[in-house]
Amino acid sequence: MSDTQKLARHVAIIMDGNGRWAQKRFLPRVAGHRAGVEAVRKIVRAAGEMGLEALTLYAFSSENWKRPAGEVNDLMGLMKKFLLSDLDEFVANDIRLKIIGDWRGLAPDVVALLEDALDRTSGNKRTTLAVALNYGGQDELVRAAKAAAEAGEINADSIAAHLDTAELPPLDLLIRTSGEVRLSNFLLWQCAYAELYFTDRLWPDFTAADLKLALDHFARRDRRYGGL
Ligand code: FPP
Q: Is 132 domain-assigned?
């Protein structure tokens, strides 16, 4: 294995287990999401320090609308608060924000905050933080296939070129917390050759050391892309 193979460039995380974390402490689910935001903060910082080029986080899926309205509101409120409180740190730390998914259909105040955050971080170079909002992998594929068809060419390259993640490095490693072993409609195309890493750790308990462990695990894998 060469050195370049060992370093992950793009890591994605399905941040699962906020509800169970809260339940274990007899707290409302929103407390779990709040603790989840703290974990996001630490992991974004760690990703920059560990030299990742891109970190993609599954924050709100197109299926999450099925949750009670109160929980959806809590999640959107936390997202807004996170943008307002952390944007300056992103700017200072050279982190570029990117949003994937059908996010323009979110509430106008959320869209306005996101547009401002995208604008203010667009020139940053160190790490891209891609947040999946109103994201579904099948929906992304349908949109990409339509765009490829409109451009007159449907093949693997043209579909890949129209994915929400098109300008990010190929996905190296997908992490899912909380012991569930499924993709839940996340980055379906991008997972084709990604290494998959599942941990029992609940998302609010996930630390920089856990990320390091996952990256070490990745470094030991032998990726063959179907060859020998
Ligand atoms: C899954 O836990 C988590 C989510 C549906 C939302 C993830 C959101 C955050 C971590 C906070 C907002 C994110 C950002 C980027 C500010 P769950 O509620 O399904 O947990 P459970 O399976 O234990 O019930």
A: yes
